[in-house]
Structure formats: C-alpha cells, structure tokens
Design a protein that fits this description.
By secondary structure, this protein is of the alpha/beta class. It has helices at about 10-20, 40-55, 80, 105-115, 125-135, 140, 165-170, 170-180, 190, 200-210, 210-230, 240-250, 305-314; strands at about 5-10, 30-35, 60-65, 120, 145-150, 185, 195-200, 235-240, 260, 260-265, 275, 295. The strands form 3 sheets. Strands 3-2-1-4-5-6-12-9 form an 8-stranded mixed sheet, with helices on both faces. A two-stranded antiparallel ribbon has the order 7-8. Helix 1 runs antiparallel to helix 11 (about 210-230) and helix 10 (about 200-210) runs parallel beside helix 13. The longest helix has 22 residues, at about 210-230. The structure holds beta-D-ribofuranose and calcium ion. Calcium ion (CA) binds near residues 8 and 38. Keywords: Glycosidase, Hydrolase.
Length: about 325
Amino acid sequence: KETLIVDCDTGIDDALALLYLLHDPEVEIRAVTTVFGNVDATVAAGNTLRVLELVGREDIPVAIGARSNWRGTADLAPFVHGDDGLGNTGLPAPAAAPTSEPAAEMIVRLARENPGRLHVLALGPLTNLATALLLEPDLPRLVKHVTIMGGAVRHPGNSTPAAEANIHNDPEAARMVLRAGWPVTLVPLDVTMTEVFTEDHVDRLRGAGTPVTRFVATILAHYLDFYEQNVFGARGAACHDPLAAAIAVGDVSPVLAPVVAVDVDTGDGPGRGATVADIRGQYRDFPAQRGAAVRVVLGTERTFPELLADRLCG
Ligand code: BDR
Ligand code: CA
C-alpha cells in the first residue's frame, strides 16, 4: 500500500491512528517523528514508544522534533488528551528510547534514501515538516505525497473560532508546507468531526478483551469525557488522526475532494491559523484552478468508525 513516515503529537487520536496503521500488514511505517502539540514532543515520543511496544514493533525508530513553534511558543492540550497525552492513565515508561537523530533531519535523510517512495502523514503541528523543507529545498520532489490532518474549511475551528489546533499551533510552518508545491491531501475538521467513535464502539473494544482493545478503551475514556462536556453534549469522539491515516493508505475514499489552492492566515488577528481554501468553484463542480496543489477532503462516506473498531478488534 504505502511506505509512511508518521509525524505526530501522540495524543489519544494519534495513538489510535498509529494502531490502525500497525494492524495493516500491507502498510510499512519507516519512522515516527514527534512534535509538540497535544503534549511536549518528548512526551509524544514516549507515548509513541508505548504504542509500538504494545504491538511488538520497537524496531520502528522514533525521533523527537520541535518542542515549540517558530515563535517559541507551545500551546499544549492536556484538557483534551490528559497531562500524559494518554488520558492520565499513568502507563509504565516504555522500554525503548527515541533515536538521537532529530526529527527533521530524519525526515530529510529517509526522503533522500528513498526518492519518490515515502508518504508523509502529518498528524500534529507542521513545524518538523517546515524545518525539513528548509534543510532540503528539494524535499517536495523527493517525497511521494503528504497527507495532513489539519485545518477547517467550511467548519468552525476548534482551537479558535477560525482555526484548527494543528494549524493554529504553527501557522507560519503550515503556510510553508501547504504552499511548497508537493502533492498534499488535507483532511480538515469538516470531515473528521463527522466521523464519531461512540460508546457502542468502545463497548465492542471492551468485549474483544485484547491488550490493544483494553488499551484503547482505557485511553478513550478521557477523550470521550472531553467531547461530551465541551463539544457534542453526548458521548462521542472525533476520529481526526485515524481518519487521515485511513485516507492516506486508501482505505477511505473521499466523496468530495477538490484540488484547490490553500493559504494560511499568519496574521495576529482573530483569523490567525485559519486555512483559507479557494472553494469558490463549489457551484460549478470545482473547475481546474491555476496554482492549485492541495486536495482538500470535504466529504467522506462516514463509515470509518466501524472500520476502525473492526481493525482494532481484528
Ligand atoms: C488535531 O489536534 C490534535 O489535538 C489532535 O491529535 C488532532 O491531530 C485535531 O484538531
Ligand atoms: Ca494529532
């Protein structure tokens, strides 16, 4: 299917995305690189190593990346993911350690070693990818594809009224990545907020009773609490990162995904971090657009939560 570098801020839904991919024997994860976002990048690396240990894949290297954005700030999200990023579950420390190679350098090295083969799946702020672009200006020609969970096109933001968290955490980096000219698929809140994992899905996981399903049910408790109290008013969790993973490897085909130009608001007003996609063609079936480079996923079939539960139980 795909050979991936997963860049993430693990994080409850990042952990789900990793487990989803790790359960597919046809997907190869060459490396996981971590970035600040839900938690600090070092904590995200520890959480990633825990997930890899759970499925016996300590052979996959984990590299730590940016601990703040280009302005030197890091807005973490313990209220969504817990202080530890995994729902305050107090899991034991992983046995393995991250590599000493920094994330952006690892991305550049692997891209040079595998020209045209690697698909980068970005599930956190885009600081590592932007840093990698600065280190290797030829990166857009070395990488096969970039799939990004981020942005809000017609949907409101979640960090601010206008901006989604991954983009809002480093709008300057996001702008650079979205305009680098490489083939990008953007999976925004417009689709991730409608793919909801419910308490029934969690019951299925509990029933399966495997180490993986027990782990996922445990970490999801905090995430479901957050969504119930702050977002939906009912038990349900948005499948942001796992949906982006499923789209990246072709398991979910978008039903509406125009290729358009996307820019990011890097100003200091209320729009900071907003993704401005040129979807003015929506009444004419999105005619071809000059300078368009981003496939923006605006519609899916909405069957993904079942697929995710099946995969994790299987
Ligand atoms: C995105 O932000 C992070 O909190 C999640 O892991 C996801 O990648 C959703 O806005
Ligand atoms: Ca994430």
